[in-house]
Specification:
Layout (H helix, E strand, L loop, with lengths): L3 H35 L7 H11 L19 H6 L6 H6 L1 H26 L2 H12 L2 H6 L6 H21 L2 H15 L4 H19 L4 H27 L4 H4 L4 H10 L9 H16 L1 H15 L4 H7 L1 H11 L25 H14 L4 H21 L1 H4 L1 H12 L1 H13 L5 E3 L16 E2 L7 H6 L1 H4 L2 E5 L6 H6 L3 H6 E7 L2 E6 L1
Parallel strand pairs: 1-2, 1-3
Antiparallel strand pairs: 3-5, 4-5
């Protein structure tokens, strides 16, 4: 039995290192944020721009409201962004995404340290494992953006830490808290749905083993996630007429993968061997190939340690991604695959907490001394950082993916940069496939697309009467705006070319 004073002392002994870890992670994250803004890579991922715009358009729109969250992505990351994107400068510069990214990065680091401190039983062992997370360059880059991977990692690692505590104490409060964080993961990315399934099975198994009312424990844990899934289905039904719109709608992943499959661009479909190769390749490019190899070597002893359950939960992303690749619900392209490229390489970073835990718990299990373990960890970290510097194309996976997207069509970035310096108000007609960055400072209520409520179709039919700016991409056959202004004398009499780059043209009303 733990006496109150003993419990207080234990809480304080764990709180002090947690605060220190949080401060260290915060400082490192801020340094990465400064670098990302100075090198103009915050908006390299077009998805990062979209996430900020989705949160902003809930209030900044011709039709403001929660329906503007859309159905392509799960809502929690955008709900977290709702407040910071209200500050115009934070939206324009991407700082709003960085604020959430820092919080997620610090939360993941503190949660991982908590797990390792409990299962390894020593601060130095916990520090070794946490160092692999906070020094990871791909995760450091992602947390500077509005991408959703850091948010999911924070919730998953936090839920795992609370479940790991529940294994020792079995309190309802701990279980409900773990269920709440799992529900937030469920509302962040679909990886979280698989995690919730695995975690629910883990709770049921351990509760049954202790003969402590496994059905009640399972229900307490799973109820928040069930509520989130139910709300998401209801939202899709209410606003889009189909509870499964997110799965089979026009912009869903399934629809996109079907198009890729028709072109023969889903090489892992029905191929478990290729799925393993592609995903571990992505993990090597994001977690670091040397770090990943050491983790693989330590996986078996780590699986026999006191932290085996936590390792299982942290590693659930491996099974999810393999299943998604084999089922044709996901696609990854690497520089050496067919076809080559940088597509969804960032998915590999989801293994990072499991990799860090495997190295730490595995070395402790095989009875490596702390001094030797520290020397090994330091050597691996330094070697990995050196390799990342000498072979960034293959080791800075998340950053390289972002740069490949940004530089794949530099016309869009040039157009956004021009608008940043020249936009002075008025409505802008643009095709949905053209990415206008938040840095353009064009309010979302003034961006008119083909689907814009009561305005889009009218603006396409008569742009000279409805808008002040027109962006047309003549190189893209499906560009609705380009088609609308072609061979239209009324338009050319009302607009002049203000900017043009390689087929991308900005027209301005005279």
């Amino acid at each position: 039995m733990t006496l109150p004073d003993e419990a207080t002392d234990e809480h304080r002994s764990r709180a002090r290192p947690a605060v220190l870890v949080g401060l260290v992670a915060f400082v490192i994250a801020v340094v990465a944020q400064v670098w990302a803004h100075r090198t103009n890579v915050v908006f390299a991922f077009w998805d990062a721009q979209a996430h900020l715009d989705i949160a902003r358009r809930v209030s900044d729109s011709l039709t403001p409201g929660l329906q503007m969250l859309g159905t392509v992505w799960l809502p929690v990351p955008h709900l977290l962004l709702l407040l910071p994107v209200q500050v115009d400068r934070w939206w324009w510069t991407g700082i709003a995404g960085g604020i959430i990214g820092i919080m997620a990065f610090v939360g993941a680091a503190v949660a991982l340290h908590d797990i390792l401190l409990r299962r390894a039983g020593d601060r130095r062992w916990a520090a070794i494992g946490t160092a692999f997370l906070v020094c990871n360059l791909s995760l450091l880059y992602l947390q500077t953006t509005a991408m959703t991977e850091p948010v999911l990692l924070a919730f998953l690692t936090g839920a795992t830490a609370l479940l790991d505590r529940w294994l020792d104490r079995r309190t309802d409060r701990m279980l409900v808290a773990a269920g709440a964080l799992t529900a937030l993961a469920v509302g962040s990315r679909y990886d979280g749905w698989f995690f919730a399934l695995v975690a629910t099975a883990v709770v049921a198994w351990h509760a049954r083993q202790s003969a402590g009312g496994w059905l009640r424990a399972t229900a307490l844990f799973a109820f928040p996630s069930a509520i989130v899934i139910g709300l998401w289905l209801g939202y899709n039904l209410a606003y889009f007429g189909d509870a499964l719109e997110f799965q089979r709608g026009t912009w869903s992943a399934q629809s996109q993968q079907a198009a890729l499959s028709a072109q023969g661009l889903l090489p892992t479909l029905g191929r478990p061997d290729l799925a393993v190769e592609y995903y571990l390749g992505a993990a090597a490019m994001t977690c670091g190939v040397l770090v990943l190899l050491v983790a693989i070597a330590m996986t078996w002893p780590a699986a026999r340690s006191r932290g085996a359950t936590a390792l299982l939960l942290l590693g659930s992303g491996l099974a999810f991604n393999l299943i998604a690749l084999v089922a044709g619900q996901s696609v990854i392209a690497l520089p050496w695959t067919t076809p080559p490229g940088y597509q969804n390489v960032r998915y590999g970073v989801m293994l990072l907490p499991a990799v860090a835990a495997a190295i730490t718990l595995g070395m402790q299990r095989i009875d490596v001394s702390r001094r030797t373990a520290t020397a090994i960890a330091l050597a691996v970290l330094l070697a990995q950082l050196a390799l990342s510097a000498t072979a960034p194309r293959l080791q800075l996976g998340a950053l390289r993916e972002g740069l490949a997207i940004r530089d794949g069509d530099p016309r869009q970035q040039s157009t956004s940069d021009w608008f940043r310096d020249h936009y002075d108000g008025g409505r802008v007609l643009v095709d949905a496939a053209v990415n206008l960055s938040p840095r353009t400072r064009i309010p979302l209520r003034d961006r008119v697309y083909e689907w814009t409520w009561q305005v889009g179709t009218v603006a396409l039919a008569a742009p000279e009467t409805e808008v002040d700016w027109v962006v047309a991409d003549a190189r893209t056959p499906d560009d609705a705006v380009s088609r609308a202004i072609t061979d239209r004398p009324d338009f050319t009499r009302s607009f002049d070319v203000a900017f043009s780059v390689d087929g991308m043209t900005v027209w301005r009303r005279r």
